[in-house]
Amino acid sequence: MPELVSIEAFLVSGIFTFLLIFTRLGTALMIMPGIGDSFTPSNIRLMMVLTMSFVLTPVMMPYMPENVPSFPVLFSLIIMEFVVGLFVGTMARIFMVALDVAGMLISTTSGLANAQVFNPAMASQGSITGALLSITGVVLLFATNLHHMLIYGLVESYEMFPVGAVPDSGSMAQLITRAFSASFMVGFQISIPFIIVAIMLYIGMGVLSRLMPQVQVFILALPVQIMLSLFTLGLVLSAGMLFWLRNFESGMTFFLSQGG
Asked: Is pLDDT at 200 greater than 70 in this prediction?
């Protein structure tokens, strides 16, 4: 009989631990880039969350409450785990916004702003250049194994946000604000070569329109603007993506160190 009681207690505590881990990991992975993108089938995402939850349940047992609480307390724990998972996933998603910002600025300066397509990485309409950069960024995340850092951040989140502790909403808001600011700055820095090319082209078109007022300079120069932008994109695409990868890694590292 004592053995049956111990086995029953172990199963109850195991299910309780699995439920809390599944809530945090599931919420974060449904938002994170790559795994949580709209082009990833829902059943694949669910299987990944279930698998990771099963694997991490024995490892995360020391971070869980020893006794199973009552239902109101359990419900509040699930809500807090959902908030923490949402925060970690949102931070990873914010660093992807830099590519969409860069793509929108590039499209605006190259005359392709009206070419709107569905951006699967953002699950919304966006510029054609932004869709290209976002998909390339997701591919590079997996090619360079940076998605391991996202998973590592989820594991480390139990040190940053212990189970049962109320998250500091002020610190969360401050980190999200700084992440948005840094992400927008990275996107702007990636698009700087295109802005410089567009400004020089506009200056040349302005001078030409003064010299030859009867010529529709802006209509004639639009193909030149698109060709120059595509040529510039071919030159700086690799450097821009490497610059974004370096900032993505440093941003996630900063987030983990701040949380610790």
From this structure: yes
